[in-house]
Amino acid sequence: MPDDAGEKTEAPTPRRLQEARNKGQIARSADLNSALLLLGGLVGLRLFGPQMIGSLHEMMRRNLSVTEPAAGLTLDVAALVPEIGMIILGAAGPVLLVLIFLAIASNMLQVGFLFTTEPLAPKLDKLNPINGVTRMFSSRTAMQLVMNLVKLGIVTAVATVAVNNRLEDIMNAMALTGWPLLIQITQLLYDIGLQLALALLVIALLDFGWQKWKHMRDLRMTKQEVREEMRSMEGDPRLRQRRRRMQMTQAMQRIQKAVPTADVIVTNPTELAIAIKYNADAMAAPKVVAKGADHLAKKIREIAIMHGIPIIERKPLAQALYKTVEVGQEVPEHFYQAIAEILAYVYRLSGKKLNKRRSKTQAA
Fold first, then answer.
1. What is the mean pLDDT of each run of 10 residues along the chain (364 residues)?
2. 173 φ, ψ to 5°?
3. What structural domains and CATH numbers belong to the chain?
């Protein structure tokens, strides 16, 4: 066995990838889902936030305003709660729909449609404390820790820059009160949050690319595994070779039986050979009785020479007949003229009379 037989140097085959997918082993970045949801939530609040705040303000003004001191004592809280809930749901509904759409789209783009219960199946090795400790101190866990620290550092740096850029606005907001203060703080939080969301999205895309690369690397196969998979899919090589020999033997037997009955062999001249037979008394049109390429074409020519059958070189005609006409089929009508000319030429060479061979192919 070669020294590299145990090294996983080969890319995973489509079958290996499908088996891993069926087991729930897929390349997926949780950070990408979080980043898209954060970004979508901010954009949704930007688009539908004023309408949501206006609806809530109108609800509070209509239900909580008291014009007379005694009116507050007759407030129907039981009837008010469902109304408040419906108003909040109607106001926040568009934002929730945006988040739901982004959550579904993110998973579909990363994974596609996948339903499997394999990851839910109980596995005893997961309950083994030794395996758990090994996973905790593995190189993969250490790499994941380093990546998380790098992500945290990048997010912290972006947040620091974003806050420093708006530091003057933050100081000015401290002098405001009431509604203007709320508006200013909301705008500042939105701007800083948007920058963080975009930074997280870039990090998540890089993480998804790394997850894809790691997934493909983890599924790499050895040369021996590739050979075994090909053997299982296509059968044992010895059986395939035996089938090919049997098919070749059967093809040779058909050729040896059919070629001596042909009237002419049309060639390419060496790559293809098509044996054509025509009997006006028994056939409606010329028929292909044998055809072959490469080695079979050579054998057809050898048999034809042995039996004195004319060999005519017609490259376009040979290629067209080989591609479109199967053995035992009559030639299509659009080949009649070319076949008639070849047969007429062959009959003249052999001295055969044409009156009994005359047919619609010659009339064409």
1. 63 82 80 86 81 73 60 58 73 80 83 67 63 66 80 86 83 77 81 87 88 86 81 66 79 85 86 87 86 87 88 88 88 87 82 45 44
2. -65, -25
3. 26-65+74-218 (no CATH), 240-363 (3.40.1690.10)
